[in-house]
What we know:
In chain A, strand 13 and strand 14 form a beta hairpin. Chain A has helices at 20-51, 67-96, 228-238, 242-247, 253-267, 305-313, 336-348, and strands at 103-110, 113-117, 123-124, 127-130, 134-141, 146-150, 155-159, 165-170, 175-181, 187-188, 214-215, 221-226, 293-296, 299-302. Helix content of chain A is 33%, strand content 19%.
Amino acid sequence: MNEPNAPATFQLPEQMSTVSGDIDWLYYFIYWLSVVLFVAIVTTMIYWAIKYRERKGHKAEPTGHNLTLEIAWTIAPLFILAFLFHKGFQGYMDLAVAPANSIEIRVNAKQWSWEFVYPNGGSSSELHVPAHKPVKLIMGSGDVLHSFYVPALRVKRDVVPGMFTSVWFEATHVGHDDIACAEYCGGRSTGPSGELPYEPSDDPRNPYPPGQATGHWAMHAMLFVETDDDYEKFLKSVGDKCEEFASTGKLCPAEIAAAQGQRLYGNKGCLACHTTTGAPGIGPSWKGIWGKEESTNVGMVKVDENYVRESILDPQAKIVTGFGPVMPTFRGQVSNLELDELMAYIKSLK
Amino acid sequence: MAAIDMPIAGGHASDAHGDPDAMYLDAKKGIASWMLTLDHKRIGLMYLTMISLAFLAGGTFALLLRIELFSRGKTIVDAETYNRFFTLHGAIMVFLFIIPSVPGALGNFFLPIMVGAKDVAFPRLNLLSFYLYLCGATLALCSIVMGSIDTGWTFYTPYSVQTTNSVISMTMGVFVLGFSSILTGLNFLVTVHTMRAPGITWTRLPLFVWGMYATALMQILATPVLAITLLLLCAERFFGIGIFDPKLGGDPVLFQHFFWFYSHPAVYIMIVPGMAIVSELIATFSRRAIFGQFAIAMSSIALALLGFLVWGHHMFTAGMSEFSTMLFSALTMLVAIPSGVKVFNWTATLYRGSIVWASPMLYALAFIFLFAIGGLTGLFLGTLSVDVHLTDTYFVVAHFHYVMMGGTVIGFLGGLLYWWPKMTGKMHDEVKAKIGFVFVFVGFNVTFMSQFIMGSRGMPRRYYDYLPQYEPFHRASTIGSWILGIGLFLTAYTLLEALWKGKKAPRNPWGSAGYEWMTDTPPCLVNFHETPIITRGPYDYHLATPEELATGWDEVEAAAPPAKKSDRPHSK
């Protein structure tokens, strides 16, 4: 954490992710473009308003026409706009497509806290990630809308109940920043009708006092970008219980989830149609299906959290080519936790 | 209903509402003459009263919010109250003030006069729309009594399905307000199509009327979608039908699509009338036609149409597909074209004009200044990758305040000062109006410029409390809000003072060539004693006769000591 931070400018916070350089370049491009246009318009306006002010002996000339001028200022902006659109969309696609080797961290947002679940099954309320490695957050909400926002990473994504959204980033150096919720999610004052004094705290890791008023603004968490060693240490401290479990002959938490999913695979009757051996059944086999591009009746679909979730809750939405629309819905029969466990199981079937 | 072929005498007004040639405020007296009036001018004044009260209420909430944010932690109210305040500020300002402001008050009063008609096409519907507005406003305010709504003015699901029941009365209020808006729009469309005086061709139609026409189109086409959305929201709460609530298999993002399908056109329902007023002000106070008048009119229509195609830009981080975001970003960029055309044309109008630095013109020039900032910051937000960083921060708050307040409200204040003498017959004090303007302009920029900076630095919206690094910006913003508040109170005082202390206003105090200045000040009940026959455009200063352009100040001064002889002919 001793590495110097890439400096913040007056308008933008420090840069901490691989994408922030491009985004800031575009920000400042639009900024200077706007400054030039604004100064040109306003100085022209003020100059003419003074030069042609009403006075004795001065009379307005009737307005003429200048079609060339009018066409010019209608068409010329189109080129700038096309450029902005192009650069903006390019940057957006960089933000949208996570590298395949990303570390996947599960994010649970709820009123009013964040929970980060690491690949080893451990969890924490602060997000720790290694520097120079792509990290993909798979986010879900159990209650209302939230939005995951880290200013220094220049990433933001709504967390929507009933679906998974994801965001990815690669931190460029060791450091820390604040994680904020950017989508309004309510709030309340605790205690007898909020009579408790609400005093902000000076602790940067915990700027909003716990146990008093809480809400949207208080969904604050820290992001720590660490060296690989520190990250490994952190993982051990929060939840790398695999070794501990192994010594007692038990499974580690990620495997527990998969084992739980395997149990559900039997209990919920999935095995009637889906094999885990690769042999086709009434439905596609689960073996090796995770992450694959499947052809369906609505086009190519990547088998990821959202697709699997949808296929369990609304099986007719996208049907893999070669299979019939025969699966019943499991809506109301599997909980969010059970969905996670089923997915952990499918992921484990490499 | 008013006769569409506009006979010179007769019609509804003369029978039930007094002498058609009497000044509209004198034609009939008593409470009933207001409550049951079919006169578009009186209805306009009643709207003006109600939206002014709404603006006062919404503004009070804004000032309270800013005081709360002056310091970290609790300053004056607790978190729940803060959440209610920003919800009420937004909902009142959007639904009770800005949307009905220009069409309901100034549009109702001046649109019929500017097309040379005696009234709108459906005067009874017009009165009904006012009463619907009152009903809707009452329902909306009930939500304050019922424990107060805390969802934000956007009512995003699933929070709005889970929180207090006052959501119902607020959404039903907005539902009813929507009908008021639709009826006003319908009335304006029919009036413009069927009741123009002889000689007012489409190319001679004043730009204010063009703006109202574009607004009316959007009101009629978009508002029903909001009504459907709000009904679905209520059904969701009462019956749990599972449209928006993911627990019932619904889709919360669908609500955002529905909501913005109305509320984005609503942004243009708010700004296009402001632009329409500014076009009038710049023409009058430059003493020449707007440069590219046809382009200005068509750009209003273009904004109205594009407004329907860009709602998704509110949702770039909400979980739409990349394909949708691409389309919405590209379409959003196109909005810059008609907006830019307007700004360029207004500025070009000043060239070789004769610029009068009257208080309404100051507001018009301020509009260009502020709308340029509001529009250019829209480029940041339309550019996808930059929007990801900026969306849902104070940058967005500042951006839409520059457009909504720096645009519509500044235009509205300019229009109010401009038409105040015509509406009331009294002239306000120009010095006070200009001092008020300086406070409004400075206060506004201090308030919202600091919000741009804290937003781009990462301060999210709708926060009761914030991290220490944002405190200086919040303090500057709060101090700005006080300056702005002083300016607005001073302006309100200036206008009200004119009612009892103001000089009598002549027929055409600003020396405009516009049609509305051809009639009495204030107008008679039927607007024109005889149906005007128009032979020139509303901005053809070079074709207008000296009588038409005469301000009439000489007569006013001649009538009052110290007497000053005038050799000009009577201007009527």
